[in-house]
Amino acid sequence: MFKGKLLFIIAILFSGILFAQGNVLITTMEKELKRSFTGLKNAGKEPLYFLQYEIIDEEEINIAAFNGAIQTQEHNRNRYLTVDVRVGNYKLDNTHQLRGQSGFAGFEFYAPSYEQIPLEDDEFSIREVLWKKTDEEFKKAQERLMKVKAEKTTKVTESDTSPDFSKAEPQIELGTEAKLAIDTVNWAKRLKELSKIFKEYPWLYSSNMSLTARAITKYLVNTDGTKIIEPKTNYLVRVSAATKAEDGMRLSLYRHFYSHSPNGLPTDDAIKSKIDELIKGLADLRQAPLVDPYSGPAILKNVAAGVFFHEIFGHRIEGHRQKLEREGQTFKDKVGTKILPDFISIYDDPTLSQFGEKDLNGYYRYDNEGVKAQRVPIVENGVLKNFLTTRSPIENFPKSNGHGRRQYGYKVVARQGNLIIESKNQVPYDSLRQLLIAECKRQNKPYGLIFEDIAGGFTMTGRGGLQAFNVTPLLVKRVYTDGREEVVRGVNIVGTPLIAFSKILATGDDPDVFNGSCGAESGMIPVSAVSPSILTAEMEVEKKAKEQEKLPILPAPIGGKK
Amino acid sequence: MNRQIAYGKKEVKHKIIERFGIGIFLSVLLLPMLYAEESPILRAMQDELQRTVKNLKLEKEKPPYYVAYRIDDITDITIVARFGAIVEDNSEHNRNLYVDLRVGNYNFDNSNFVPSSGYEFRFGSMENATRLPLEDDYDAIRQKIWLATDAAYKEAIDLLAKKKSVVEHKALSETIPDFTQITPYQEIEEIKRIKIDCDCWRKSVKEISNLFRNYPKIQTSRVIFRALSLTRYFIDSEGNKQVTNNSLTYVEAYANTQNKAGANLADFVGFYAHNPEELPKLNAIIEKVKAMAETLSLYTEVKEEKEYTGPVLFLAPASGQLFYQILGKGVSDTRRPLYEQEEMEKVLEENTGFLAGRLNKSILPDYFTVYDDPTITNYEDKPLIGNYSFDDQGVKPERIELVKNGKLVTLPMSRKPIKEIKKSNGHGRFYNRMVRNYISNLIVQSEKTSDDLEKELIRLCQENGLEYGIVVTKLLPSLPKTAEELEEEIYSYFTGGRPEAPMLNPTFVAYKLYPDGHKELIKSLKFEGITPQILKDIVAVGKEMNVYNTLIRERFGGDAYLPISVVAPSVIISKMTLTSKEEKTKKQPYLSHPYFGK
């Protein structure tokens, strides 16, 4: 058994050597790009004016354990091609929004459009895929621009008349391929052992202890002359557990450890302490009373505040949302006006690879349009300054600031990288808690809320738009004015969550990092948010709709410590 | 082997890459080399089953009357090449638990029912699979079985209540039982895995794929090697207890291009066996792939064809396709579930079971005998892939005589009865989201045969004053759908534009045969007015029996499929009408293929 595993790890260590010499791949991409661009430029009804090939080479190791047994052990490598074609001209091209669609019949089916590229650097095998995909995308682009033009003649003018595409500086940077370096045998053993802890708690119905290691190399060439090889590695240890309360309500908590290198991963003791924290949290939640409808002061703990900012604020300052007619355009006309307390500043900076000691998952050097990542001041002293932009201009923001992002196969939209919240009104957390109590007294509330843990998420509501970004409080406490704390469950944030931001009273001095994956219309992408704990004067919550499920009828088959 | 083998694969989009084939080596080592009888998996299943049967009951509700656990442990290797280079190289090991839990009684239970909410878009499977640990850890596996059982029981109660109200609402009077009794069977096999030399297959797949560098008229191609090994653990509350192995290995070569008018031309050739040793030699595969590529290349030039009415000769594999599509589908899937919403039935169900009403009536000329036999693994030296040692409900399969002297005498049956037959003959196969009554290895035999069917065809043509006869060697294959095609199809269901699927696929490779013996390829034509009656119009039968192995792909099933085999002779059908079919066209690629255009 040991021998087999040893071979497995050797296989992983040497796997990079057999395949892939990155420069062959990028040269091949360049060749076919050139041939396609020359050949297709004037081949269709509408001229081809921009062409881009992006190949994501992704190697992934995934190991998961459940109650002391390995549940998943996978090692994948794939290469995915996305082709971006623009026909027409910078002012009007095939990517222009189509408005005249409503209901199911008008729903623009959107499945990601990618092709798998050979793992071996065989020039013509790779070029065959590039050629075929380019031809398909070129034809689709021609058809779509026809629709766009037809709609232009029949519909009223859009409110935002900015062009569809903007020029960008060509970028050349050829990094070296990303490589995985991790002792999978040892990690499998560690995960198995750590996952055994959960076995002692039969009331935890499910749990998962996993490691995901990824080496991603992005190869990008386009007709601006941009040529990029950008490597990235990330390592994620995730622990999660779930149970149910007596009334059937599902309860779950998780903890993440993120790092750019295996050295940055936590020790067993660090993981154990988080597991204990998680088990205690779930034990408390199981006993906790249901929340009562409430509106009043609340604290969002640092990481929870990061998630909250990312979902509720961050998504609303993504550029395309100010332009698309179906969007809420919350902040469209607010540039230059005060939207947050003047002690709050926010910027998004994908170029940061770390915050303090912690690695940031939202780090990248070039976005998926070949634009260099930039630090973008979004809010300065409470005043809205900027949106996150791509190469599709929006009113008053004609240039990309390097936030055009997507998962392979999807169309680029503006997305967050590392969202950083800064405060000039910082107090130690204990004082923040005192301020919460004081504010409760001032507002004549018997208690305030502390959001310890929040999960973010994207759900397709069928209507698209901003309602789609939700936060789910996982662990919330009531703090009474006498200082007593009590966990409550079933908390659902309602009302207009944005208000919580405009009514921030003070923040902690404890900025911390949320690393995660964000799903939206351009797919799943890695993001980070950094925020101190925040105290807001107003947060509105209600009881979650009751779940119908009952507790398991039979007790857990395997005993364990109570 | 059945479709579950493919099921695990669907869930995991990102696949394992195992460049050294160590994955399999590793998983073999992880499996304790014990007799399965002592396996912690089986013990966990038994212990939890026992507890479930004894204690699982909600207040005010009845306990389950039947519980079955099935665990499929699958290793799955896929190697794909395009134009001579590896594009996918994956190895997976999955273990899935399926729970069949029934409340009510044999006459009326929670099965055979599709409610209108909660299930519509579960295209892959109606059964929820639970992923199990890959290690034989009694405690961890039992914990998973416990919760899956609990969920299945609650769902079953919910479904039964819904089903009752739908039956009342629709005032359905006819009551066919939902489930039949069987004789339980115990059989414990030693765990077996097929051995795959991945390095060798990587080389072979590349070599086959590289052939396409000789066919400038073909736009894209893809060669797939796949090897699946299944160990199945099955136990139920009626005393069934089985541990069995099955495996499947195949090579498929796909090619795509367009004809002059821009219509899509896609073809494939497949080689199927239980293990790699049974596959044809590499040279033989290469010859067949070349032949396919050559014919497809010729097809880019074939001209429009007018109507034809007259005798048609079906050669292999078209003869196998014909018998599957008319006879195989006609006798299969004879019990549809009750749909709360009839619209959904139209979307999700296929045109099958149409011969059930012909039971005890003649459906073929009286010199025909047809049987279906899941217990055989070969026909002469050719592998048959429809075999299994127990069906997907743990029933020992029987060889059944479907057609005797031209008369349909029985049907493939699972434990899901129909009005006429209330006994399983071990033909319960998981397909299209649930266990269906389905064929496995269909053997079509004729007492009367002719020496030379081509001569016979010419004779028939001359009798009818026809200039030539039509010979079909391949019907249009039902290829796996691309994401785009699937999208269009789903869209068409909701907009009411769903085209009726033909009972018999259009021709793909066919030619005119002239009395002087010369042959002329013809474009794809569709058959008009096909009914099962055409089986009775068979007027001549060839001597040779041909094996047609295929994977029946599901309409919405991703890459899930059901392996079946048809062994049948070539036949002439006295009179058929073929007409040209409407074809969607797309512009040819603007630029030439980078390799051929260089």
What does this structure look like?
The complex is a heterodimer of chains A (562) and B (598). With 562 residues, chain A is an alpha+beta fold. Chain A has helices at 2-18, 22-40, 123-154, 184-199, 268-287, 302-313, 429-443, 499-502; strands spanning 48-66, 69-87, 115-116, 172-174, 206-222, 227-244, 250-259, 294-300, 344-348, 354-355, 358-359, 376-380, 383-384, 404-405, 413-414, 418-423, 426-427, 447-458, 469-480, 485-488, 491-494, 504-508, 512-520, 523-531, 534-543. In chain A, strands 8, 17, 18, 19, 20, 21, 22 and 25 form an 8-stranded mixed β-sheet that branches. In chain A, a hairpin with a 4-residue loop joins strand 19 and strand 20. In chain A, helix 2 packs across helix 3. Chain B has 598 residues and is α+β, with helices and mostly antiparallel strands. Chain B contains 10 helices and 24 strands. In chain B, strands 9, 11, 14, 15, 18, 19, 20, 21, 22, 23 and 24 form an 11-stranded mixed β-sheet that branches. In chain B, strands 1, 2, 4, 5, 6, 7 and 8 form a 7-stranded mixed β-sheet that branches. In chain B, helix 3 (40-55) crosses helix 4. Residues 1-34 and 119-126 of chain B have low confidence and may be disordered. Classes of the chains: A alpha+beta (562), B alpha+beta (598). At the A-B interface, helix 1, helix 2, strand 1, strand 2 and helix 3 of A face helix 2, helix 3, strand 2, helix 4 and helix 10 of B.
